[in-house]
Amino acid sequence: MRAGLITGIRQCEVTDVAEPTPVDGSAVVEIRLCGICGSDVHAYAEGWQYAPQLCGHEWFGEVVATGAGVDSVRDGDLVMAGLGPGCGRCSYCAIGQVHYCRPANREYNGMGPHASPNGGFASLIGVDADRLVVLPEDITPVQGALVEPAAVAFHAIQQSGMRSGDTVAVLGAGPIGQLTAMCARLAGAAIVIVIEPDAERRELSVQLGADIGLDGGSETRSKVRELTAGRGVDVAFDAAGIPQTLEASIDLLRRGGTACMVGVSGKPTEVMTNKWMTKEITLTTSILYTKDEAHTVGQLIATGRLAATALHQGTIGLDELPGTVEQMANREVNALKLLVDPTR
After folding, report:
1. Is the C-alpha dihedral spanning 101, 302, 140, 38 positive or negative?
2. Angle between helix 147-160 and helix 291-302 axes, rounded to 10 deg
3. Is residue 62 over pLDDT 70?
4. pLDDT band at 4 (very low <50, low <70, confident <90, very high)
5. Share of the chain above pLDDT 90, in %
6. pLDDT band (50, 70, 90) for residue 266
7. If you write DSSP's letter for every residue of 108-152 in order, what string do you get?
8. What Rg value do the Cα atoms of the chain yield, rounded?
9. In degrees, to the nearest 5, what angle opens at C-alpha 257 toward C-alphas 275 and 146?
């Protein structure tokens, strides 16, 4: 079968790989749709060491075969894949922090003993059945393909410690930033401020529930102070993944506030730690999500409470993937979320 793979810096190709067969404890999933993640583009542009299994990890599909010993899913289940439930033996599992389990993280990152030679940019994928999250029967393919990035945003809210009634700033209105703002609103944020230089994305964030969108110019800090009675926000989410936005996030916080890094940057970041100490801020980071969080997000999207499908701005075929990734790396495409139909 054909699969889209990122094989090196500025190298993305559609190549032939073997079709998966279900081994003990695994399932084969037929991919309906798969989103192009920002990390796919970063890996392409910056030459990350990128396991083939990660090339297209925002996928949604249907279980078509299972191996021996699988009782958590069955043929016909609609699923996405997240982090496994933990090995149950390591020190992290022993204290209930299974999302830090090293074997589970290795499996997610394509370094396990039965790692797939491809990700979701293919018609089929073989995956550890314990990683599969069963989604509602009535969820649509577009909704299903957006569960993974929405779960990343949902997890960021949990990691930040945000509480109902907090004031929130989200820096960057790409897919994760938009979803983080939406999840903050669902979690009871009193004020949601989105900071984004792109006018179209900024306006969309307001349409999707943010209270105000700011362009990130020189007056941003004073406007945030006006909106928060002179204090600054309780929680700031850096969803842009560029060096400048971490320091900008700190600048918008009140004393004792929390900054949560959810955007990924592969470049060094220079910060002024004296400002951090003066404010006594808390810095948290967020990556991935738990299976329970993904299941909750699937319910929120399927019932329309989380309008993630508003980010879908086009679907392409597999042969279009290399050129599209190149355009995204060059910022020639401004679409928030493009999905890949591997059957096209």
Report:
1. negative
2. 120
3. yes
4. very high
5. 78
6. low
7. HTT-STT--S--SSBSEEEEEGGGEEEPPTT--HHHHHTHHHHHH
8. 20
9. 115
Q: What share of the chain is helix, strand, coil (3-state, %, to 5)?
A: 35, 25, 40
**Which tokens sit at 146?**
């957006």
Please, are residues 281 and 238 in contact by the beta-carbon 8 Å criterion? no
At 233-243, the pLDDT tens digits run 999 999 987 77
Average predicted confidence (pLDDT) for the chain: 93
Q: How many CA atoms lie within 13 A of 11 on its CB side?
A: 9
- pLDDT, one tens digit per residue, over 71-129 is 999 999 999 998 888 889 999 999 988 889 998 888 888 887 778 999 999 999 999 99
Report residue 154 as tokens.
Answer: 């949902």
Contact in structure between 252 and 233 (CB atoms under 8 Å)? yes
User: Could you tell me if 160 and 235 are in contact, meaning their C-beta atoms sit under 8 angstroms apart?
Assistant: yes
Report d(CA 236, CA 226) in Å as an integer.
16
Residue 209: what pLDDT? Answer: 94
Q: Alpha carbon 185 to chain centroid distance?
A: 18
Domains along the sequence of the chain with CATH: 2-81+112-134+307-341 (3.90.180.10), 151-285 (3.40.50.720)
Q: What are the CB-based long-range contacts (under 8 Å, 24+) for 74-80?
A: 77/132, 77/134, 78/134, 78/135, 78/136, 78/137, 78/139, 78/144, 79/27, 79/29, 79/132, 79/133, 79/134, 79/135, 80/132, 80/133, 80/135, 80/144, 80/145, 80/147, 80/148, 80/294, 80/298
Cβ neighbours around 341 below 10 Å, total: 17
- How far apart are alpha carbons 161 and 165 in whole angstroms? 12
Q: 225: phi > 0 → left, psi -120 to 50 → alpha, else beta; which?
A: alpha
Assigned token pair, 191:
């004020």
In whole angstroms, what is the distance from residue 172 CA to residue 180 CA?
A: 10
In angstroms, the CA 289 to CA 183 distance is 14
Q: What's the whole-number mean pLDDT along residues 4-11?
A: 94
